[in-house]
Amino acid sequence: MAQFTIAVNGKKHAVTATPDTPLLYVLRNQLKLSGPRFGCGLGQCGACSVLSGKTEIRSCITPVAGVLDKEITTIEGLPALWAQKKGLPLTGASKRLHPVQQAWIDEQVPQCGYCQSGMMIMAVHLLERVQRPTEAQIRTAFSSEGPSPHLCRCGTYTAIIDAVQRASKSMA
Amino acid sequence: MTSIEEMTEQLTDSGITRKRFLQSGGVLAVGVALPAALGARSAKAVGPITSLDGTRIASWIEILSDSKIVVRTGRIEIGVGMTATYAQIVAEELDVPFESIRLIMGDTDRTPDGGYSAGLLPGGGGNLRKVAAYTRQALLDLASKKLSVPTSALTVTNGVVKASSGSVSYAELVKGQELQLTIPVAGNLTGFAGLTVTGSPPVKSPSEYKVIGKSYPRPDIVEKVQGKTAWVGDVHIPGLLHARIVRPKSLGSTLVKVDGFGGKKFPTAKVVQKGNLVAVVSPNEWEAIAGAQSLKVKWSDWSGLPGSENLPTALRALKYSPATTGRSKRGDTSAFATAAKKIETTYYQPYVKHAPIGPYIGVADVRSDGLVRVWSHSANPQALRKTIATMLGTPTDNVVVHWLDQSGQYGRTTWGGDGPEADAVILSKELGRPVRVQWTRQEDHGWSTQSPASLTDMKVGLDSGGNIVSFQMDHYMPTSYDVRPLGALLAGLPALAAIQSPTVSPTSSVSTVFGYDKVPNVLESAYGTDTLGADSPSKIGLRGNIMRTPWQRQQNFALESAINEAAAATGQDPIQFRLKHTTDKRLTELLNKTAQAAGWQTRPSPSPKAQASGSKALTGQGVSIMIRGNAYWVGIAEISVTPSTGAVKVTKFTIGADVGKIINPRGLKRIVEGGLVQGLSEALHEELQFDKSTVTSSDWKSYPILTMAETPKITVVTIDRDDVGFGGGGEPPNALATASVVAAFHDATGKPMRRLPLKPAYVKAALKA
Question: How far apart (Å, rounded) are the C-alpha atoms in residues A5 and B43?
Answer without folding.
Answer: 52
